[in-house]
Write a structure and sequence with these properties.
The chain is built from no helices and 11 strands. It is mostly beta strands.
Length: 117
């Protein structure tokens, strides 16, 4: 399993970023995907979930109504559109999956998002 995130960067409060996660090494179209983040000095925080077909999506309360998760199974890619960004969204963002459903999670290397003026 390989997951490669991209799209992070420095953005001002109120701005937007779109993260991408390209997957390989498993049948992407059969796998549910998640986004998580880790802010400096804090533990990991789950951000969003999207099922294999892209029809069931959940968000944490902290990002609901600001972030949008989607996927393109033809491109083996999952996205996280982040709007109305706040300084507290500053974190390293990771995509993750458990393609076997047996609790064996795989994570990408992460992409840094910094929200600052």
């Amino acid at each position: 399993v390989q997951l490669v995130e991209s799209g992070g960067g420095l953005v001002q409060p109120g701005g937007s970023l779109r993260l991408s996660c390209v997957a390989s090494g498993f049948t992407f179209g059969d796998a549910d995907m998640s986004w998580s983040r880790r802010a400096p000095g804090k533990g990991p925080e789950w951000v969003s979930y999207i099922n294999s077909g892209g029809r069931i999506i959940h968000y944490s309360d902290s990002v609901k109504d600001r972030f949008t998760t989607s996927r393109d199974n033809a491109k083996n890619t999952v996205y996280l559109q982040m709007d109305s960004l706040k300084p507290e969204d500053t974190a390293v963002y990771y995509c993750a999956t458990d393609p076997t459903g047996l609790g064996t999670w795989s994570w990408g290397q992460g992409t840094q998002v910094t929200v600052s003026s």
